[in-house]
Design brief:
By secondary structure, the chain is of the alpha+beta class. It folds into three domains: about 375 residues, no CATH class; about 70 residues; about 160 residues, no CATH class. It is about 55% helix and about 10% strand. The strands form three sheets. It has a five-stranded antiparallel beta sheet. A four-stranded antiparallel beta sheet has the order 6-7-8-9, with no helix packed on it. The C terminus is likely disordered.
Length: about 600
């Protein structure tokens, strides 16, 4: 630690300004970031013992990243502001470590700190998921910072007593038990350092270096051999063969596919340029060994992913590889800056990097603020519904128009239309709900925003029919797709009894409006019909295709486009639709209030 902090003995004022600016910018982003996805799961812990018990279960049934997940679980039961501050400090520490490992001259530290921040901010893959997302940051940001911290003594190359060897064995286990591909790259880096010391300095490895390496290998083995990996593999049966995985690894390292993926392609070009310049300006080519070693480790961290037994996400998993490559670039820059001729070009390059970072930062903040605003609206609406007795609310699907990779939810799922989705279920648990689902913003505005909480709280088919059809204020609109399947027979019979019409065995389609006069339209064929109620024209069409099966109310299509039996309820008092729900035999006891059109076409991600 003292060796790292000694970097800041010169240029103290400039260093403080740079680090404070970085801290403020990242803290602001952390403050605007909300909990999502896995955060809902890991928030459900009742104490330290429960945390370890759940992590043991996860180790046996899902994956072996126990170090990261234990820290994540602990942080998620503490006040969120504590995490936001600590996460900011860890990010700043990561930037400091990147500069430290470049072994720069003290007068160049402010420049390299700013450059390191710019490179990480622009090129870190899925910045929102790997740096800001609470669960994701522990898996990537915190674990990469831990790995670079573990490597400090190897870069110092100082002698330590035998007790240190024992401590470094334990530290090595923790460092290896962090992240599969980055942990492997760390082990390769240590071996490269030992080789360098042996070849160039003719130095035999000290005991602590060997115990640290052994510990790191043991930690990595404990992680990758977790029984849960074999279980998890069953959830991802298709790996598409070695050739496909090699192509994916190639694309991750050398091809830019979309704004959310790794920027390794550009970083490799930058690295090639700076190591060439460093080689020209420095006669002692041995100085290029460390930058080259970082690059080799980065490359290895990418291609190590093809050995993963489970589904490979070549996006956020590239975080460690990206940081290693940035370490290589900064190490080259530290060598280049020793030549005065490079001063002006380097400063000009930094100016461009700052400008690009500023543009990205402005859009990122707008994105994070917009997402937080939507979640705050959800919170207010859910609170209102709970007070009204509705524990099964419907919320508008998350708008993604302004989303960037700096938002954790950019490539993750929000609340889904299907309330049985694992995210919906865990969100319900931590918010004291029975269920939650989402629908399109238009559908939510037309029906659920000012809907009937008592009806919206009912999900069971028969209970709903009893409630909807026994209130004089309500007009019930019924519409179906083809219900000729025998599995619908019991549901149709119950519906016909409630509508006071005779069940007909050959009835394939139904469309009806139950009013005070029991006005009902039904037929055995595909049918259409309408009625004017309170001066509002309501039109129904029952078709086999859900996309053509509509309830049109005052020129607005409000049907949720789901197959099955759909019931919409109109309130005479409010003069608007106050609920809509669809059932099939499979969803008899919970129904569907989401709109099937909400599913986003971008990357097959659901809103």
């Amino acid at each position: 630690m003292k060796t790292v902090l000694s970097l800041f003995e010169a240029e103290k004022k400039k260093n403080r300004i740079v680090l404070i600016c970085i801290a403020v910018l990242i803290l602001l982003m952390n403050l605007f970031t909300i909990k999502i996805a896995d955060d809902y799961v890991y928030s459900q812990s009742s104490g330290l013992f429960d945390i370890f018990a759940k992590e043991y279960t996860q180790y046996m049934t899902w994956n072996g990243r126990s170090v990261a997940h234990i820290l994540a679980r602990i942080s998620l039961i503490l006040p969120r502001i504590l995490f936001q501050v600590c996460n900011t400090l860890i990010f700043v520490w990561l930037i400091i470590l990147i500069v430290y490992h470049s072994k720069p001259s003290q007068k160049h530290v402010p420049f390299l700190l700013a450059t390191s921040f710019g490179l990480v901010f622009i090129f870190a893959p899925m910045f929102g998921e790997t740096v800001l997302w609470q669960t994701g940051s522990f898996n990537y940001l915190w674990m990469t910072a831990l790995i670079l911290t573990f490597l400090i003594p190897y870069r110092q190359n100082e002698k330590h007593h035998s007790l240190f060897a024992g401590l470094y064995l334990l530290f090595g286990i923790i460092a290896g038990w962090t992240n599969e591909n980055t942990g492997g790259a760390m082990i390769l880096f240590i071996m490269g350092i030992l080789l360098k010391n042996f070849i160039f300095e003719k130095e035999k490895p000290q005991l602590w270096k060997l115990t640290g390496l052994i510990g790191a290998c043991a930690g990595l083995l404990i992680m990758v051999k977790a029984p849960g990996n074999a279980v998890r593999m069953l959830s991802f049966p298709e790996r598409h063969g070695l050739s496909s995985l090699l192509i994916s690894a190639y694309e991750a390292s050398l091809v830019i596919r979309n704004p959310g993926n790794s920027g390794l392609c550009t970083l490799w070009l930058i690295f090639a340029a700076v190591i060439t310049i460093a080689g020209i300006l420095n006669k002692d080519k041995k100085k290029l060994y460390i930058p080259a070693l970082f690059a080799v480790c980065s490359f290895s961290a990418v291609y190590a992913m093809i050995f993963s037994p489970v589904y490979i996400n070549f996006s956020r998993s590239m975080f460690g590889a990206t940081i290693f490559l940035i370490c290589g670039i900064i190490s080259c820059l530290a060598l280049i800056l020793n030549d005065q001729r490079a001063d002006i070009p380097c400063k000009a390059s930094l100016g461009i990097l700052i400008a690009l970072s500023a543009m990205n930062y402005s859009t990122a903040i707008i994105d994070l603020v917009n997402t937080r605003y939507q979640f705050r609206n959800w919170d207010r609406y859910i609170s209102e519904q709970k007070k009204a007795g509705n524990l099964n609310p419907v919320i508008p699907a998350l708008s993604r128009e302004l989303m960037t990779p700096y938002d954790p939810i950019f490539d993750l799922e929000g609340i889904q239309g299907d309330h049985t989705n694992w995210i919906n279920e865990n969100f319900s648990v931590i918010n004291g709900l029975e269920s939650i689902s989402s629908t399109t913003l238009d559908q939510w505005n037309r029906i659920y925003r000012d809907g009937d909480p008592s009806l919206m709280n009912i999900v069971d088919y028969e209970t709903y029919l009893n409630a909807a059809l026994t209130d004089d204020d309500r007009i019930v609109l019924v519409m179906t797709t083809d219900v000729s399947d025998e599995s619908y027979r019991d549901m149709i019979d119950k519906l016909c009894r409630f509508l006071s019409i005779d069940p007909v065995q050959s009835r394939f389609f139904m469309a009806g409006i139950s009013t005070d006069d029991s006005h009902v339209l039904t037929d055995n064929e595909e049918l259409c019909g309408g009625i004017t109620i309170n001066g509002h024209y309501i039109y129904l069409s029952s078709m086999e295709d859900p996309e053509e099966t509509d309830i049109v109310y005052v020129k607005d299509t409000v049907s949720n486009k789901n197959p099955g039996i759909t019931i919409s309820v109109y309130s005479k008092q409010k003069q608007q639709l106050v609920d809509e729900i669809t059932w099939t035999p499979e969803t008899y006891d919970h129904g569907i209030r989401s709109c099937s059109e909400q599913y986003n076409k971008r990357d097959n991600v659901k809103d």
